């Protein structure tokens, strides 16, 4: 009881104070930690550069091993540099928010600060949480009181939010702070929005709103379409969503798995400049045209073909943008395929036996919709050849060898040789000719193509020619999605398979009115087909002042189309200026004067918006004489400080401190729905100032009141709710106990039908246990992660372990036995055990041979709380010395002794004991090689290399991590370089660098039983059964056998870490097995 009181008081004392003095002291403390981390990062970079210099001195440039080390060192340096960029952000402004909350399962309050990046102290304890961690979502989404947060694949956790505090920090000074019990703090938001564009970008993370946060944190494994009004932060939300996904779904998504599709290069250049601020690197970005060109692969000749922008005013060409055009193309391909692939029955010569009938061929072509025509030809050839060989084997009618060989050659290429020799460009012209005959004539391209020509060509390539499919992307983000017609989306949906989408747009800003999207209905039917796919609406506009918003909404009311209502954030500014001038010279002079006045007011981003590219280029040349203008080339221009002169179409997705709408006359903007949307786009680009300067007659859209006869129908609003996808069902303690009991019974029943009878162990039969002693001992709980969101629970490890073992003892094994620690001697036999007869074991046996005493059945699911690593000081595994013995190589670090023992050319034993005077112990399994075989060990300045005929094992001295290579230097597996291993209180952790694409499976008891461990955490030991080594096999051609006599757990969940954990043996011990397939790995495993 006294210990519990002390624990509570310690926890309470850890909660930072609430007064200004205490908050200032906390800020100083966090800044100090951030500075230390930054200095350490700089030291790491210096060290990495020194390592590179050493490698250059040690290895020849062409030496394979040196090249591998160089690549590793370079990757490490890049990671350090990105890490330092994160730490510099943390140093500039450590945090912006704080949450204090009560977990109902714990007796104390918890408190966390939230910042742009996470900050941890020297013990790896978090002092500031990254805004992307799951628990940070309560800061953005919830008011004070009961609430919850969800961890992907792990479940939902309920807390009571006691306080939500927001901070203004500038130049290491706490300017202000305030508590809020509402979701969005309008006071702070209004302050940030009043700043210039550059300053606003730096504060976005602090002001993410609830509706934005729900979109950002939606699972990337589902499709999402977002309708966002102008100024709702669509582009910003999309970028933050990518950052969130890469942080939380590292196992499933890497930067190269993303495509960002934008409507123009200026928007993409802007995105490129902002993503590093969000800790995102290496994302591929392209226009829709560039994506379709990419999908043409080798058929696109850059020297021969060019791309042009489709003319928005060309009504004739607009039909190419709709779904109808795609369906016509689909039917054209279907007809062409029927002409190319014969549909006649195929009969065997001499016997007349039917090999393939016409109906089968027709059905196959129709059902294999994902295969190209070339692919279908190849597959039909294989099917026909198999039918032929089956027919001529062992039949009464025999074929002479020469005749049989000729028939085989014929059937191998009966449907074609699998190489279509046509041209997709010629085929597209045939399609256009056919369309013209049907009264759907469009401009026929020669060597220049618009986006819908390119979409059609990409579809033809995929549908007709492709024979080696390439996986392009796992997740596609499309910004300004309303600018693309359904033709583009139908082709994307066909060509980019097995990927998910985040689609952002605003139908009110569809400047391609006749073929873009004026509503979302068709796209929703095409894309949102999954259970958890969703459509969301961002209705609040954060960009414009009330005055600019009112002006823009008046423009919108001139249109006769349905709109989504806008909810502006109340922020007042100056009235929108409209002023006429006598001639162009006066207009230019007034424009220059206005720009200079805005610059004097501190506005750093200014746009001069013109009608088209020609007007923009001419205006830029004139303005250059008086004010500096950003680069004129629209393909290379980058968004940034200064004056940009842009056509209205190129302003999509961008925003500026001030916007000058230049000369919007009646001639340039006639009164129709398309021009209404163009002017709406132009007006809504302005954050603070908007001016309209013109000569002649101002367009009626700006000059007149909106017609009363026009009505803007409003779309029904759809609220995006918190997603439930991939949540683990939360079980009560009783339900969890029953579930584990059922698993135990099932496994025991399976074993009864395949092997020895179930054996019930009595307490007095347990080694070292006196009769009547029913106390439980055993493994402590898995400690919690230093990078996780929660601190360790109040209960001690022993208390929880005791409870857990009583709850989880498998059927047929007493809780007492389950808790006993088995300490087998060399040879593995426990006192009193008897040998079993072949395949049969007596029910009267006092104890089975080498029983595994773990309380956990194979495949049991561990509690989340047990998976998180606890905070600890930095473990120093750097190699101090190495020595080669007769059977093994030993290396010493300040942390302990690492031993590498070659067992066979394909099998290496890795052992580690904590402490420089400790010794590696033999286990029940093979401790060293039975027979001698050649192997070598070499030591260089930077690494130790152990090599057999089939395997190369390298340990870099700097970090002590074990890396496994094939003889041709291909890396197969590596322990984590920053922290390869840990031992604490009889428990061990070996941290592995498993890749996101790697598939792991564990071997169960039955011959066919394999447990999928991809992105999962499971017990892989066999509690209550005869001792056997847990075996995990990877699709990369290797296995890991853990020499664990008790509990073994594999965690492959990035949130908690990727590691192999054992409890009860006290030393790390595993066998690395190289094999070309599972059978070969299992064969090697059995010999251990």
Structure write-up:
The chain is of the alpha/beta class and 1088 residues long. The strands form 9 sheets. Strands 25-26-27-28-43-40-39-36-37 form a 9-stranded antiparallel sheet. Strands 1, 2, 3, 4, 5, 6 and 7 form a 7-stranded mixed sheet that branches. Strands 10-9-15-16-8-17 form a 6-stranded parallel sheet. Helix 16 packs parallel to helix 17 (486-495). The longest helix is centred in the first third of the chain and has 39 residues, at 20-58. It is globular. Residues 1-13, 192-202, 724-730 and 747-848 have low confidence and may be disordered.
Q: Which key features would you list for this structure?
A:
1088 residues, alpha/beta, nine-stranded antiparallel beta sheet, seven-stranded mixed beta sheet, 27 helices, 43 strands, globular, disordered N terminus
């Amino acid at each position: 009881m006294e210990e519990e009181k002390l624990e509570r008081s310690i926890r309470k004392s850890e909660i930072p104070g609430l007064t200004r003095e205490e908050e200032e002291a906390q800020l100083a403390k966090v800044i100090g930690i951030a500075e230390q981390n930054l200095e350490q990062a700089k030291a790491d970079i210096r060290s990495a550069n020194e390592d590179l210099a050493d490698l250059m001195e040690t290895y020849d440039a062409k030496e394979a091993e040196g090249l591998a080390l160089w690549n590793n060192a370079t990757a490490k340096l890049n990671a350090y540099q990105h890490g330092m960029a994160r730490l510099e952000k943390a140093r500039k402004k450590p945090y912006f928010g704080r949450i204090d909350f009560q977990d109902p399962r714990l007796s104390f309050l918890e408190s966390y600060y939230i910042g742009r990046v996470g900050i941890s102290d020297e013990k790896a304890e978090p002092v500031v949480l990254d805004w992307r961690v799951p628990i940070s979502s309560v800061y953005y989404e919830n008011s004070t009181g009961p609430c919850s947060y969800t961890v992907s694949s792990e479940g939902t956790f309920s807390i009571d939010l006691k306080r939500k505090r927001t901070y203004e920090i500038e130049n290491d000074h706490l300017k202000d702070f305030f508590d809020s019990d509402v979701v969005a703090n309008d006071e702070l938001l209004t302050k940030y929005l009043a700043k210039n564009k550059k300053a606003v970008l730096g504060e976005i993370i602090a002001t993410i709103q609830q509706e934005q946060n729900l979109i950002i944190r939606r699972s990337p494994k589902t499709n999402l379409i977002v309708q966002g009004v102008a100024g709702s932060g669509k582009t910003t939300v999309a970028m933050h969503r990518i950052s969130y996904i890469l942080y939380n779904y590292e196992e499933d998504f890497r930067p190269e798995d993303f495509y960002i599709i934008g409507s123009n290069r200026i928007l993409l250049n802007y995105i490129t400049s902002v993503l590093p601020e969000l800790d995102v690197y290496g994302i591929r970005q392209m226009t829709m045209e560039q994506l379709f060109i990419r999908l043409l692969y080798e058929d696109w000749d850059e020297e021969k073909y060019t791309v042009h922008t489709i003319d928005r005013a060309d009504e004739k060409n607009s039909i190419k943008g709709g779904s109808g055009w795609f369906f016509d193309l689909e039917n054209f391909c279907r007809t062409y395929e029927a002409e190319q692939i014969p549909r006649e029955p195929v009969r065997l010569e001499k016997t007349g036996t039917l090999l393939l009938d016409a109906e089968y061929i027709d059905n196959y072509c129709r059902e294999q919709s994902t295969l190209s025509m070339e692919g279908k030809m190849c597959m039909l050839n294989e099917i026909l050849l198999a039918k032929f060989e089956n027919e001529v084997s062992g039949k009464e009618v025999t074929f002479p060898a020469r005749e049989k060989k000729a028939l085989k050659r014929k059937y191998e290429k009966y449907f074609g040789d699998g190489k279509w020799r046509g041209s997709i460009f010629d085929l597209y012209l045939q399609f256009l000719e056919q369309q013209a005959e049907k009264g759907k004539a469009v401009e026929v391209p020669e060597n220049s193509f618009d986006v819908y020509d390119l979409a059609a060509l990409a579809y033809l390539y995929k549908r007709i020619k492709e024979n080696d499919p390439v996986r392009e992307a796992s997740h596609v983000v499309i910004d300004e999605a309303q600018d693309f017609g359904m033709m583009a989306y139908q082709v994307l949906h066909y060509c980019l398979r097995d990927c998910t989408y985040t689609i952002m747009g605003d139908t009110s800003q569809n400047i391609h009115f006749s073929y873009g999207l004026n509503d979302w209905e068709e796209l929703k039917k095409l894309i949102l087909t999954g259970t958890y796919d969703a459509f969301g609406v961002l209705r609040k506009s954060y960009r414009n002042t009330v005055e600019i918003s009112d002006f823009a909404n008046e423009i919108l009311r001139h249109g006769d189309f349905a709109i989504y209502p806008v909810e502006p954030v109340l922020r007042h500014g100056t009235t929108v200026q409209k002023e006429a001038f006598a001639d162009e010279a006066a207009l230019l002079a007034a424009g220059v004067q206005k720009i200079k006045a805005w610059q004097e007011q501190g506005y750093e981003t200014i746009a001069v918006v013109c009608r088209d590219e020609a007007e923009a280029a001419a205006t830029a040349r004139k303005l250059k004489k008086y004010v500096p203008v950003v680069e004129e080339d629209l393909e290379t221009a980058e968004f940034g400080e200064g004056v940009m002169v842009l056509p209205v179409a190129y302003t999509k997705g961008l925003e500026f401190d001030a916007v000058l709408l230049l000369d919007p006359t009646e001639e340039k903007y006639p009164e129709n729905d398309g021009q209404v949307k163009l002017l709406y786009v132009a007006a809504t680009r302005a954050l603070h100032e908007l001016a309209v300067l013109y000569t002649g007659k101002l367009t009626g859209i700006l000059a007149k009141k909106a017609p009363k006869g026009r009505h803007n129908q409003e779309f029904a609003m759809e609220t995006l709710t918190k997603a439930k996808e991939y949540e683990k069902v939360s079980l009560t303690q009783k339900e969890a106990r029953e579930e584990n009991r059922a698993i135990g019974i099932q496994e025991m029943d399976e074993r009864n039908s395949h092997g020895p009878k179930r054996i019930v162990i009595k307490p007095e039969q347990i080694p070292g246990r006196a009769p009547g002693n029913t106390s439980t001992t055993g493994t402590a709980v898995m400690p919690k992660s230093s990078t996780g969101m929660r601190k360790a629970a109040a209960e001690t490890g022993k208390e929880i372990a005791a409870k857990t073992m009583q709850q989880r003892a498998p059927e047929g094994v007493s809780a007492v036995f389950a808790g006993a620690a088995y300490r087998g001697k060399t040879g593995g036999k426990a006192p009193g055990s008897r040998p079993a007869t072949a395949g049969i074991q007596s029910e009267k046996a006092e104890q089975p041979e080498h029983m595994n005493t773990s309380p956990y059945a194979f495949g049991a699911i561990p509690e989340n709380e047990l998976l998180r690593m606890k905070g600890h000081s930095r473990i120093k595994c750097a190699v101090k010395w190495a020595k080669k013995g007769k059977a093994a190589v030993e290396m010493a670090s300040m942390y302990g002794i690492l031993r590498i023992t070659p067992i066979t050319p394909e099998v290496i034993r890795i052992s580690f004991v904590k402490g420089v005077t400790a010794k590696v112990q033999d286990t029940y399994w093979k401790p060293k090689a039975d027979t001698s075989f050649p192997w070598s060990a070499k030591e260089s300045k930077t690494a130790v290399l152990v090599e057999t005929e089939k395997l190369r094992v390298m340990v870099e001295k700097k970090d002590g991590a074990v890396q496994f290579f094939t003889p041709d230097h291909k890396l197969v597996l590596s322990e984590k370089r920053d922290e390869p291993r840990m031992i604490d209180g009889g428990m061990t952790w070996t941290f592995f660098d498993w890749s996101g694409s790697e598939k792991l499976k564990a071997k169960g008891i039955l011959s066919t039983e394999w447990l999928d461990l991809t992105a999962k955490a499971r017990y892989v030991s066999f509690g209550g059964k005869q001792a056997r080594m847990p075996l995990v096999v990877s699709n990369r051609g290797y296995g890991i056998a853990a020499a664990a006599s008790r509990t073994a757990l594999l965690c492959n969940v990035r949130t908690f870490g990727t590691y192999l954990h054992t409890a009860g043996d006290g030393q790390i011990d595993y066998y690395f097995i190289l094999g070309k397939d599972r059978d070969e790995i299992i064969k090697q495993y059995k010999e251990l």
